[in-house]
């Protein structure tokens, strides 16, 4: 992933930097989303999530949105650092994928603030990297009781027939904007949605999705040493198109 530009919020404006020195700081809140030809999915929800964990960052957010190009594919990230600095990383979008291979993370839960995006980004990167030698592209975090919670960088949803399901709201995890958008769209279409606590084995035979701002909806084609998964022909393409259709100009 290339970084096109880095900006620091200083005296009420964005100041370009050649680099952002983070050796003396850590990320306390962050958010990222895809902007493709000037359009983004549920940008208001990303704004709500980021500002919900920061103070006085409204003007910074507005300025960050204003500098994102309206042509090309971008994957910007806004950050609040531990010493209060606000940073925008205006990144070109990396390659995106339609499928994921999952593996269970069997170590201790590495999350320190599981409901806040940002503080645990490095930890999530480490556990995803740890499962890659198995052939996986995403690690799945389980609760202490063995229930599916979320992916390292994705929310998880699955289908029981025509019912779109996800983990219980009380499970501490990042509020995935893409997963929330899919559930909202399902309800708008008159489909049932359902929360359930499930172990990996209880997902045997389901169609399982990994959802993220970068990739949108990905079909989980396999779960290493886990359940056998299914795919209803055509459903993924229809839903990816539906989410694309509700993207709005930034």
Radius of gyration, whole Å: 18 Å
User: Structural class of the helix and strand makeup?
Assistant: alpha+beta
In which order are the strands of the major sheet placed? 11-10-9-16-15-12-13-14
* Biggest sheet character: 8 strands, mixed
Q: What is the terminal-to-terminal distance?
A: 22 Å
CATH architecture level-2 label of the largest domain: Alpha-Beta Barrel
- Low-pLDDT stretches: none
Q: What count of helical segments does DSSP give? A: 5
Structural domain count: 2
Helix content: 10-25%
Give the CATH topology of the largest domain.
D-amino Acid Aminotransferase, Chain A, domain 2
Mean pLDDT: 95
What is the H/E order? EEEEEHHEEEEHEEEEHEEEHE
Q: What would CATH call the homologous superfamily of the largest domain? A: D-amino Acid Aminotransferase, subunit A, domain 2
Shape: globular
Provide the CATH top-level class of the largest domain.
Answer: Alpha Beta
Description:
With 250 residues, this protein is an alpha+beta fold. The chain folds into 2 domains: 3-91, D-amino Acid Aminotransferase, Chain A, domain 1, CATH 3.30.470; 99-249, D-amino Acid Aminotransferase, Chain A, domain 2. Helix content is 21%, strand content 32%. The chain has helices spanning 43-51, 58-67, 121-131, 177-188, 235-245; strands at 3-10, 13-17, 27-32, 35-36, 39-40, 73-74, 77-81, 86-91, 99-104, 138-142, 148-151, 155-160, 163-166, 193-195, 207-212, 216-224, 248-249. The radius of gyration is 18 Å and the shape is globular.
